[in-house]
Amino acid sequence: MLTAPVAIALLGAVTSIAIAAACVATLRARAARAALRAGDQEHGESVELARKLEADSRLAGEIARDLTDLLTAITGHTELLIASLDPSGASIQDAYEIRRAALSAARLTKPLRTLSGGHRMPTDVIDVNAVTARAVPARARAETRLTATVLVVEDEPGMRELIRLVLVRTGHEVVTVAGPHAALAVLNRQPAISLMLVDVVMPEMDGYDLVAEARKVLPSVHVVFMSAFAPDPTRHPSGDGFLAKPFTSESLIGIVEKALSY
User: Fold this and answer.
1) I need a labelling partner for 75 at 20 to 30 A (CA). Which of 38, 42, 177, 245 fits?
2) What string of DSSP letters covers the chain?
3) Cβ-proximal residues to 102 (8 Å cutoff; 6+ apart), any chain
4) How do the pLDDT tens digits run along the chain, 262 residues long?
5) Please, what is the Cα angle at 153 between 152 and 155, to 5 degrees?
6) Sheet architecture: strand order including 195-199
7) pTM above 0.70, yes or no
């Protein structure tokens, strides 16, 4: 059985390795950038340095993004577990400790995202009792209104499943896909989609390009973007909200409810 100390130790090990790798990539990128500024290289060397700079910066950003997604999924699933446990039982304290460790690790990714070239985004930290207390009113509201179909476009499986579970438990109909092409196929088949939750960074195309294509199919669809980095002001299309990763279940529910109210 995976105990809280073991889970926390594993979290710490994974986080430390990922941060170390990203820091190495970032330092290499900074060294390449400094060398380019010095201007002492031949043209060929400068081109090679520029390539290394781009590759290392991209690697650092990808590690920061993947780690943020992983820790958000761990935190969210732990919150759902806490909400289902007996408050007087022994297991709930272990769940609290795992959640605390995941939130602490998530905070470490904030300066890492800054080092890799992104902007710091706020991390929502809440008392999980508030989530549990508000779960019943949310379900009650769901019974008195028509549920809305939500399309979640997220390439990280753990994050995708977390979002689905949280929204289904609050009365929403949810469709999940792993990438932009699958999202467009769903929109063509199901014109009743009312809201898209879109990850900004994805392999096939980024979230901004996806939304531009989606609005050709369904101009009225509401959109909430998700990312560990601040939105690009030069490319950020019209949307109904921005959900900063890592996020809590409560902030996810809140932004979805707000977007659907427009």
Assistant:
1) 177
2) ---HHHHHHHHHHHHHHHHHHHHHHHHHHHHHHHHHHHT-S-HHHHHHHHHHHHHHHHHHHHHHHHHHHHHHHHHHHHHHHHHHS-TTSSHHHHHHHHHHHHHHHHHHHHHHHHHTT----PPP---HHHHHHHHHHHHHHHHTS---EEEEE-S-HHHHHHHHHHHHHTT-EEEEESSHHHHHHHHHH-TT--EEEEES--SSS-HHHHHHHHHHH-TT-EEEEEESS---TTT----SEEEESS--HHHHHHHHHHHHT-
3) 11, 71, 74, 75, 78
4) 455 555 555 555 566 556 666 666 666 666 666 666 666 555 556 666 566 666 666 666 777 777 778 778 878 788 888 888 888 887 888 787 777 777 777 766 666 555 555 544 443 433 434 444 444 344 444 333 434 588 999 998 888 999 999 999 888 999 999 999 999 999 998 888 999 999 998 888 999 999 999 999 999 899 999 988 877 777 766 678 899 888 888 899 999 999 988 8
5) 125
6) 173-177, 149-153, 195-199, 222-227, 241-244
7) no
